[in-house]
Fold:
Amino acid sequence: MREKILIVEDEKDIIKMLDYNLKKEGFKVIDARDGEDALDLAVREFPDLILLDLMLPGIDGLEVCKALKKETKTASIPIIMLTAKGQESDKVVGLELGADDYITKPFSPRELVARIKAVLRRATEKEKLPEIFQAGDLRIDFSRISVTVNGKAATLTAKEFELLKTLLKAKGRVLSRDYLLDTIWGFDHAMEIQTRTVDVHIRTLRKKLKSESRRIITVKNYGYRFEGED
Ligand code: CA
Structure:
């Protein structure tokens, strides 16, 4: 799975440099030129990490950070702040607001990539699933890749299992069709026909989950979420 990074920066040259270096490392890159755009993209694209410049036109970086951490949909996305020398106090405020790390300009792409990888690694560890998940009649054993409903085995295909796992990992957050498609099938550009792939697999997955299919909730015109609580 290629991780998606959102760059929030108004300086074209820096975006260009980051875009080049991050793509070279195999990341998917999207960018926003101002705070509003950043908030919008963070919700729609649900990136794995946000590189946030603090000096932005309009809503500044700290405000963006605060807003991202306040919104349930985006609160768990790790943030690395890009700061300029002399912004020491902003850096501290940012970390207090929930940013994960910061890097001071000018920085070497190599150092930045190392920081990104470290933050992503920590985030994945935090998101680790238990070996066995149980809710109601649904029991998922991740080490054996087995699913049972009311004690009876449900035979899931590899993609259906991935889909279930991805939804579960989101801990109740809504995942867009594009995100699911990208994560599970790895398509770069989701087209109409491809987004339907997700719906088709959701349908067969629900069928197999029988009474527990109610846990997969459709969010109209957007995507799906998993309800783990009863
Ligand atoms: Ca800037």
Notes: Helices lie at 12-24, 35-45, 61-70, 88-97, 109-127, 158-169, 177-185, 192-209. The CA atoms of residues 176 and 221 lie 9 Å apart. The chain is about 45% helix and 20% strand. Residues 9-11, 53, 55-56 surround calcium ion (CB under 6 Å).
